[in-house]
Amino acid sequence: MSTSRREKNGIILSVVSIVFLSVSSSQIYFQSFATFAQVSPEASSSEGSPAAGIVDRYPFSASYQKPASKQGVSEDRTSMSAVSFDRRYAKLKSMGTAYRQYNLWWSALEDSGIAGSAHPLSCRPGYQQIPAKEAERTAWGYHHYHCINQGVLATFDNLFRRDQQARMQSGVVLWSSPAIYRYAECVGFDSGGNNSKEGCVPRDDAIDDFEDYVNLLASRYNGKSFGKISHFIIWNENASPDWFDYSPVTTKTDLSSASVEKRIDKYAAMLKRAHAALLRHQKGSLMYASTDQLWDPGKLPGHFGTRWLLDGLWARLGMNYSWSVAVHPYGNVDDMPDPGTYTFHNLEMVVDYQVQKLRALGIKDPLSYPQSLLIASEQGWPLTSAVGTAGAYGREVQARQMCLAHDKVMSMNQVVAVAHNYFHSTEPAENDANGQSEQGGFFGLIPYAVPDDLSGMESVATGKAFLSTMNAHNWKKRDDHYCCQIYGLGCRAANPSPVPSVTDAHQVMGKIDGISVINGQNTVSGWACVHAMDASIAVHLYMGGPAGSGHSVGVYSANLESESAVAHACEAGGAYRFQIPLAADTFSTYEGQPIYIYGISSLGLSSSALANSGNFRVPTRPHKLQGP
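Structure (tokenized):
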């Protein structure tokens, strides 16, 4: 969830979302069968092109059009002066932005504390009754009357109208039930020391009110007076017991088949209700069911895995509903992820899985069906380093990952759009060396210091990467954009020259100087840096062998003041020395074993063993030193 991304047990939770667009089980519509795979990523006009692949059996998705370019923004800054607002839109439009995504919480829209009713309500000032009268309630498909926050409604009226005027598609994440519709006993989860219950799903007897929530948005933002929502993401990370919390009906940590199937039943019911609302009011829109990158069950307590969820949705929705997978592939694009997960690196596995399901149903042209489509609606790369120092990785790693991710999705026709978590930082603490992020890491790609009107964003690496990837006229059509010039990605020529190799230009380097007694403790000293970069990095200490066979002891900062000789070797001007005290239990556990230290690349490249790794050994007893 982009407003509250967290790291749990070393795994950053992420979202995969799955598009659901359906038709009545008694009516199947066939009109035309254009093939999505035949549409090149660059083929769209400024208006977009029909997403062939959404065959016309699915009424409200059949006329969906792809955005003009794939790179979008996840927008968390929505309150600013009118002047800044206008300039921000002008800037984004000039960059070629074609997709903007927002969080539109149910608990914000309906926060009056007054529950929906089949009878007209007396709403407080600042709230309006929707629908306004009985004739509207019947005609527009509402179950109940509701008191809706006028301020929240006005904010999104303005945003969606402006998006439509700028020819940008709007997407929303729909989540967070109001307290009046939750189970009182819903457990919730810890969020920065507070108990959050926003993931608590609506009670079974409040499912009509959930449908009304989607019905309001589908009818109001249908492309007429107030703009249009083209992408509806329903709830969040629905294989997770925290983001999709069905307690007390199910126990959060229970992974028995009975419990999991009950959770999938609940989510499928919500999707069908949301679909009913969209079918009444929408044309050319997609609806997404949110899952995450943890493919296999049990990787977190109570998490039953994306594959199980997909299997359950295939069984419950099948071909009567149009649905696709929108992924949130957190993690370095360079590296193969852990087994049972996926990132941009192996994103094809999700398409392959969906295609296999379609073929098993006898579909001979699976790439022409929406079940094969992906949208990457949440993923990112935090500034916070492994040792907790804000900004240690700098913007360069984010920018490089953006370029790599865009290169990957531009090679995959089935990826419709991308919105990283998140576009413009809202956290001033990112400028504090000891700052703590509410998300567990500073994910904002454009720095907080860049003003609302986005002036000066071109001066930072991530701003350059956005400019490089947003404009559909850049990728593989020009060589003068950032990703091509710095990383050799997205260039017009197959082998552009000259383009410096990031591996050669920014390799990790350093040396273990030895073991000495400092402040009464045996201490391993040395230095480490990324060549030609001022930012300090972290180092990883192993005992008994290199990474892969040795024992990981810990990660430490190489940020102590360094002399001119080190600066000369690094060809930069930062602080690169480290001193690692050896704890008392180190001697009994690892005495006589070799010491290995790796520098951790701040650009997401492979870690490198420092010179002299393996040459020094842990003393056989304190203060007795052994060297090469």
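The first helix runs from residue 82 to 95. The longest strand covers residues 508-518.
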